[in-house]
Structure formats: C-alpha cells, structure tokens
Amino acid sequence: MEPTSRLREFIRDFTLLVSEPGADEAMLVAEGGRLLADLVRQDDWLPEPYTRPDPEYYRQYLLHCDPLERFSVVSFVWGPGQATPVHDHTVWGLIGMLRGAEICESFGPGAVGTLVSQGERRLHPGDIDAVSPTLGDIHRVRNAYDDRVSISIHVYGADIGAVRRHVYKDDGEVKPFVSGYSNDAVPNLWGAAAG
Ligand code: FE
Predict the structure, then answer these.
(1) How remote is the CA of residue 123 from the centroid of ligand 1, in Å?
(2) pLDDT along the chain (195 residues), means of 10
(3) Candidates 2.60.120.10, 3.40.50.2000, 3.30.428.10, 3.40.50.720; correct CATH number of 3-181?
(4) C-alpha 134 – ligand 1 centre gap (Å)
C-alpha cells in the first residue's frame, strides 16, 4: 500500500464508523481504537510537513476534520523534552503512538478544588490510550525523550482545535483555552504526488 493511502483509508473507515447508527462513545473508543492501532502500526505514511517540531512548543497539526465535526485527526509533534500543561478535552479522544515515546500522567479530583496524580503511563510505538469525561479526561503529556522528536496521532470526537476546554494551573486556577492548530493546510490525500 502507498504510504498516504493508509491515512486516506483510515479516514474513510473512521467516517463509516461514526456514521453507524449505534456509534456512541464506548463503541467509537473501542472500534476506533482498533482502527487507530492499525494506522500507527507502521510509521511510513505521515507526510513530512506534519512531522516538524517547533523549537519552543509542541505542534498540533490538523490532518483531517470530518465535515460534520464528528471527529478530527491530529498529529502531535513533541520536540525534545516538550510537555503540555495539565488539561482536559471535554470530548472523547484516542491517542496512538507513532514515533518515539510519550508519558501521560492522569489526574483525578483530590481535596476540594485540587487535582491528584493518578500515575503515569509510557506509550511506545503502536500503543493506544483514550481520554474522555467518563474515562478520565485530565492529563499532562510529555515527550519521554530529551534528545529526539516523538509523534502521536490523536482522534477526537469534535473539531478539537475549536473546542472550549481548560488548563489546570499549579495554583488551582482553571483557565479556559481553545487550542487551534499549528497548520493552515491539511495533507492532500488524493493527489498523485501524495502517493
Ligand atoms: Fe490531551
């Protein structure tokens, strides 16, 4: 199979999945997780512009957004040592590790107005993780490496760049944020040059 057709077929299959009558969060996390595991099993399909790190901040490149905003697909590119703040998503999300490794630290409610760490998980290429308000939605993610780029592919149950969500600061402040995306153009999945 040509490299970029993996992403095209993943998007087609995910579109069929979200169109099924019984497509609720549990079904999408389970079945969608299997599709994502297939996609990240091989690291030969992500076009180079969506693999580029930024020297300062992690990058969040939109690869595809469903026209009905039922899901979006993003590549997260971590420069060496880069990390997110503690944040939530407010919708279901799937994380598939493509390259390198990342460490996800989950948080749950502690004493009134505080969060407590529920432990860390290290994701290796091919691993899948999930978040949602029902599964546990608050985490902090960082590149497991200080000397190389790591990349994970995420799928969310909305146009995640436009979702109003929250960052949880060390002093207890909860700050609203909308992430946007790092790119203005998405991959051409259909052009001959895309393969
Ligand atoms: Fe996250």
Answers:
(1) 13
(2) 84 98 96 98 96 97 98 98 97 98 94 88 98 96 98 98 96 94 94 55
(3) 2.60.120.10
(4) 14
